[in-house]
Amino acid sequence: MNRLALDRIACMRGGRILFEGLSLDLNEGAGALVTGPNGTGKSSLLRIAAGLLTPAAGSVVRDGDAALMAEAAGLDPERPLREALGWWARIDGRRDAIEAAMADVGIADLADIPVRLLSTGQRRRAQIARTIAGGAPIWLLDEPANGLDAASVGLLEQLIARHRAGGGIVIVATHQPLGLDGAVEVTL
Ligand SMILES: Nc1ncnc2c1ncn2[C@@H]1O[C@H](COP(=O)(O)OP(=O)(O)OP(=O)(O)O)[C@@H](O)[C@H]1O
């Protein structure tokens, strides 16, 4: 059973406590929406949830693989989109998932275009496709709506809802309003 639980987490950055006493218990289908001004620790919280940053206090229980989608796209700019996504899918053992993931975010027709030629929003959609194709049950999305047009934001909301309906868990850090039904709201 997938689960992500943070228990009384404190986050220290550069010798300063950004937040403390933060608890979240997300079971299958759950979502959390993290908001707050610049620099309050939203990205740091996602990194703690991913296991990439050690909290100054508290504990993290993660049952299920986590995918962190952050600013750095991690897609080879010189490769055509399909191959750039394929590189990750091979590592994840999920080569078969690429075509459907590209179709999910409406970029199937860009499969042969080098990543460096994609627009900001297309690149963001490619990142979402990478997250979908990876198959991890726990999604940690850092500003996923940045650069997306209104229609793509709606699509993102639907894809997150589908992921949760299938038993997935999501934490989204965002400055933009995003519709996540029944999500726990965390303000930093
Ligand atoms: N590696 C680091 N070493 C020291 N301080 C850091 C490090 N990474 C981030 N910080 C500091 O931690 C604070 C929180 O950063 P973080 O990126 O988590 O904030 P955020 O809430 O996601 O901000 P934004 O809304 O601008 O994306 C910032 O003051 C930042 O300068």
Question: What does this protein look like?
Answer:
Keywords: ATP-binding, Cytochrome c-type biogenesis, Membrane, Nucleotide-binding, Translocase, Transport. This protein has helices at 42-50, 81-92, 98-104, 120-134, 150-165; strands at residues 3-13, 16-27, 31-35, 57-63, 66-69, 138-142, 169-173, 184-187. The radius of gyration is 16 Å and the shape is globular. By secondary structure, the protein is α/β, with parallel strands linked by helices. The structure holds adenosine-5'-triphosphate. Residues 13-14, 18, 36, 38-44 line the site of adenosine-5'-triphosphate.
Short characterization:
It is built from five helices and eight strands, in the order E-E-E-H-E-E-H-H-H-E-H-E-E. Helices cover 31% and strands 28% of the residues.
Q: What are the main properties of this structure?
A:
188 residues; single chain; 5 helices; Rossmann fold; 3-stranded antiparallel β-sheet; 5-stranded parallel β-sheet; globular
SSE order and pairing:
Layout: E1 3-13, E2 16-27, E3 31-35, H1 42-50, E4 57-63, E5 66-69, H2 81-92, H3 98-104, H4 120-134, E6 138-142, H5 150-165, E7 169-173, E8 184-187
Parallel strand pairs: 3-7, 3-8, 5-6, 6-7
Antiparallel strand pairs: 1-2, 1-4
Radius of gyration using CA atoms only: 16 Å
Structural domain tally: 2
- Summing up helix and strand content along with how strands pair, one would put the structural category as alpha/beta
Largest sheet: 5 strands, parallel
Distinct bound molecules: adenosine-5'-triphosphate
Helix share bin: 25-40%
CATH superfamily of the largest domain: P-loop containing nucleotide triphosphate hydrolases
Spell the H/E element sequence: EEEHEEHHHEHEE
Q: Mean pLDDT, nearest integer?
A: 95
Record the strand order, biggest sheet: 5-6-7-3-8
| First and last CA, distance | 28 Å
CATH architecture of the largest domain: 3-Layer(aba) Sandwich
The global form is globular
Beta-sheet strand percentage? Answer: 25-35%
CATH class of the largest domain: Alpha Beta
> Helical segment tally?
5
Write down how many β-strands occur, each being a DSSP E stretch of 2 or more residues. 8
- Give the uncertain stretches in residue-range form: none
Domain ABC transporter: 4-186
Keywords: ATP-binding, Cytochrome c-type biogenesis, Membrane, Nucleotide-binding, Translocase, Transport
GO molecular function, one term: ATP binding
Protein name: Heme ABC exporter ATP-binding protein CcmA
